[in-house]
UniProtKB/TrEMBL annotation:
The keyword Cell membrane applies. CDD domains: BY-kinase. The lineage of its organism: Bacteria, Pseudomonadati, Pseudomonadota, Gammaproteobacteria, Alteromonadales. Its EC number is 2.7.10.2. This is non-specific protein-tyrosine kinase. It comes from Thalassotalea mangrovi. GO terms for molecular function: ATP binding; non-membrane spanning protein tyrosine kinase activity.
Amino acid sequence: MRVSTTKPFTDHRRSMQYEANTPMSDSADEIDLGKLFRVIWRHKLVLISFSALVTVLTAMVMSSKTPIYSASASLLLEAEQNRVLQLDDVYGEATSAQEYYYSQLEIIRSRKVAEKVVATLNLTEHPFFNQPNETQPSLRQTLVNLLNPPEPAPPLSAEEKAEQKKQSVINYVWGSMSATPISKTQVVNVGFESQSPQLAALLANAIAQAYLDNHMDVNLERIEKSALWLNSSMAGLKQKLEHAEEQLAVFEERESLVDVRGIKSLAAKELEELSGQLLRAQQEVDQSELLSSLVAGNSDKGALAFEDLNAIPEVLNHPAVQKLQQQTLAIETKKQELASVYGPKHPKMIAVNAELAKAQFNVEQQVNRLIKSLGTDTRQAKQRVQQLTAAIAAAKTRFQRLTRVENQHRELLQEVETNRNLYEAFFSRLKETAQLEGFETSVGRIIDPATVPYAPSKPRKSLVVVLALMLSLMLGVACVLLIEALNATIRSADDVEQKLAKTLLGIIPLINPESNNASSPGRLKTLFRQEQRSSAHTLPANYYLLDQDRGFSEAVRTIRTSIQMLGIDSPTQVIAVTSTLPGEGKTQLSSNLFYALGQLQKTLIIDADMRRPSIAKNFAISSNQPGLSNYIAGTHPLDDCIVVDKHSQMDVLVAGDLAPNPQELLSSPRFKTLIESLKDNYERIIVDTPPILAVSDAILIAGLSDALVYVIKADDTKEQQVKAAFKRLQTSGINVSGIVLNQVDLQKAKSYDAFEGYYDQYGYST
C-alpha cells in the first residue's frame, strides 16, 4: 500500500520544528521555566483572587485576636553550691553539669513553683483574675451543647469554689510560664505571657524569686531531716561501738595477747630456720648414703686400692680430701721447680721428696678414715633429720594457732575501728548540721529583672498576614501546576511533538459562526467545546469560501501547505482524514480542506463514513443521492454517484445509502479499483473516514491512501485515547502523516505560545 512508503516526517516544516526543539529533546528532564511562568500567568486572576481572599480572612482573624504581652527575667544558675564543711549528704547534686541545669529548668517550669507564686502574691484576689467572664462560647461548642446538652453541675460549697478558682489560677500561671536557657551560658530567661503587660512583668520576677525561695526551703528541709535522722542513729552506733570494744578486750585477755604480730613474726622466723637446717641435714644424709653405695659397689669387685678409692667422685670431691690434694699438688709443683736446678741427691730435693711422700700419705689416711666413718656419719645425719622434722611440725602447729588468733583479733579490731569511724562521722555530721540550721545558700540570683513590655509579642499580625499572602500564593501556584501536570489532553504543539512524537500540520481556531466580524481576535470565542451542538452553531461546509474569518481561512491554508509539503518525495493524491472519537471536527476539516485544495488543483471529496455520513448534509445534497456504497454494491454507475457542489463546482462523492456491512464494502476489490481510477481523474482526493476507536473502517481506507491526517480536538481528547488509536494503526502498518488540532481557543492559546507559525497571530492576513 502506498501509505507505507510515504515519508510523513520529511517535510520542511517538521524539520524546522524539530531543529528548533532539539535542545528540549536532548534535555527532556530539564524544567522549562518559561512554560511554568506562562501557566502561572494564565491563571493569574485566580491566584490573585485566592491570595486576596486568604489574606483578607487572615487579617480579619488577626484583628480579632487579643494581644499577648511577654516579659522575661534573667536568672543566673550557680554551677557549684557554696557548701559548708562539704556536707555532701545534705547537698547531693548531679555529677553532670548538663543534667543539673536541665533539672533546674524543669524545676523552674514545675507546678510547685506556680503554686508558690500564686500563694505568695495571693493571685486569687488579683483584679485580673476577678474580671467578669464576657467570652462567648464558640460556634462549635454552641452546636455541641445544642446536640448534647451538658448535665447541670452540682452546687459547690464556698470552700470548693475557692479551691476551684485557686486551681484555675495555678493552671493559668503554670501554662503561661516558661524557662529558656541561653546557649553556652548559665543564664536562664524566665518568661511569662499574659494579656496584661503589668501582670506579665510581675509574674516573671515572681517566678524567678519563687524558684530561688523554693530551693532554699528544700535545702533547709533536708538539713532538718538530716539532723533528726542523725540524732536517732547516734544512740545505736554508740552501743555497737561499746559492744565491739568489750568483745576485743575479752578476747585479748583470754588469749593473753600482748603483741600478736611480733609473736607471729618470731614463730615464722623459727620455722624458716628449722626448714633450712632440715634441708642441709637431708643433703648430708643423701651424700653419705651415696658414698656408701659407691664404696660397697667397688668392694664387691675385689680389694680396694687407694687409687680406686681416690677415683670415686664423691671421695675425690670431699672437702677434706680436696684440701689435702691441693697441698700435694703444691709440693709437686715445688719439686718440679727444684728439679730444674738441683740434682736428685741434693738436700733440697731429698727434703721436698720427703714432704711429698708425707702429703700423699695424709691423703691416703684421710680417704681411709672417710671410708671407715661412712656408717657413723649416715646414722648421725638421719637422727638429725628426724629431730628437725619433729621440731618443724611443732613450729607449724604453733604458727597456725597464732595465725587463727591473729585473724580473730584483726576481725574484732576492724569491727571496733569501723564502729568508731562511723560514730565519729555521724557525730561530726551532727555538729555540722547543727551549725547549718541557721544558714541559707541560693542556687542562683536574678541578674536582670523583668520590665513592663510596651508592645505585644504575639500575634505578630503583620508577619502573619504577609505569611498568609505568601503561603496562599505558593499554594495556589502549586495547585495550578498540579492541575496542569494532571492535564492529559492534547492542546499545544509541544504536546503533539513530545507526547505523541508526531508532526503538527496546523490548527483550526474555535469560531463563533454568529459573529459578523469573526476575524477580530475578540470574536474567537470558545463556543465549539463539543461537536454535538445544534445546527445553529455548526459551521457551514463552505465557511472557508465565505472568508468571513481570515484567521480561520489562513489556518486552513497553512494545513493545505503542510499537506503539499508531504508530497515532496512521493505524491499524496489520496488523503484520508480521521480522528480518535466522533465529534472532533474531522468532517469540518475535510470539507474546508477540500475547498482549499480545490482552489489549486482538481479535487474530489469522498464520504467514506457509511455508518454516520455527514458530507451530504453539510453540502446540502439530497439524502437520496446515491454514493459510495451504491457504487461498490454495483447498483449505480460512478457518474450517478458523483455530484457537483453548487458553491465551488467541484465534485463530491457522498456515502450513499446506509450499508449493513461497510467493512466488507471497503475491503472489496471494487473499492480499491475505484480509488485507482479516481487518481487518474483527480489530482487530490479527500476521504472523510470514521473515527479510529469507534470502528476499523478508517484502517482499511488508510491502507489505500497516500497520507493520513489525524484530527484531535484541542484540550478535549485524552492522550491515552490518541495513543490507543495510534497503536491500532501501527499494528496495521500505517503511519500518521500529521496532526491537526481542531477547535483551538486562541485566547487561551496565547498563554501557551505554542502555535507560532500555525495561525495569523499578528493580524497580517487582515
